[in-house]
Design a protein that fits this description.
Number of strands: 0
Largest sheet: none
Distance between the termini: 41 Å
Low-confidence stretches: 1-11
CATH class: Mainly Alpha
Helix content: 55-70%
CATH superfamily: Tetracycline Repressor, domain 2
Number of helices: 10
Order of helices and strands: HHHHHHHHHH
Structural class: mainly alpha
CATH topology: Tetracycline Repressor, domain 2
Shape: globular
Length: 195
């Protein structure tokens, strides 16, 4: 599964000026580069060049690189916090697949995502959604974590998983449908037994 450049809610601006435009361009391009290479292999200069801004502006608006990583994680979380669960579970949007890839690459590069990211709207909404089916708090949290782990694992390790299990011949669309079906199975496992 490859990560395509995502079209997200930040409009594309060439030669951004002003605080809001610079921040928007830097967040967009940092997210794309983090998905492509990971934050460890992406310099602030790389981000600034792709965003069309001076690298000093990145430091001015975000400070240290770790602060930029945190801002990207919060931005991506906020962007998908109100998404339809069907789209999220099926990995239907390139932007959401990019989001999962950025999280995974940040973790693999040693960034403390759980400490850097301040808001987790997607996970909060998913836990709340599962809790609404009658699951207790712990079951809802575990179910959300298991579902997300399945999806992140496929986003990051699909080439290995396909080769190691002989799934290279399955079309991408069919594989995504099956991953979504397994995620739905996990979500349904949280429902309390019928009385």
């Amino acid at each position: 599964m490859t990560t395509e450049p995502a079209t997200d809610s930040i409009p594309e601006i060439s030669n951004p000026t002003g605080r809001d435009e610079v921040r928007a361009a830097v967040l967009r391009h940092a997210a794309d580069l983090f998905a492509e290479r990971g934050p460890a292999a992406t310099s602030v200069r790389d981000i600034a060049e792709r965003a069309g801004v001076n690298h000093g502006l990145v430091f001015r608006h975000f400070g240290a690189k770790e602060n930029l990583v945190a801002a990207v994680l919060d931005h991506l979380g906020d962007e998908h916090g109100t998404a339809d669960f069907t789209d999220l579970v099926s990995g239907a949007t390139p932007a959401y697949r990019r989001h999962l890839t950025v999280i995974a690459r940040c973790l693999l590069d040693g960034y403390p995502v759980g400490q850097l990211q301040q808001r987790f709207p997607v996970m909060t909404a998913l836990v709340d959604h599962i809790r609404a089916t009658g699951a207790d708090d712990r079951t809802a949290a575990l179910t959300a974590a298991h579902t997300t782990a399945l999806m992140i694992g496929w986003e990051l390790f699909a080439p290995f998983l396909r080769a190691a299990t002989g799934l290279q011949d399955i079309p991408e669309s069919e594989l995504r449908q099956d991953i979504a079906a397994r995620a739905v199975d996990i979500l349904h496992s949280a429902k309390p037994p019928a009385q």
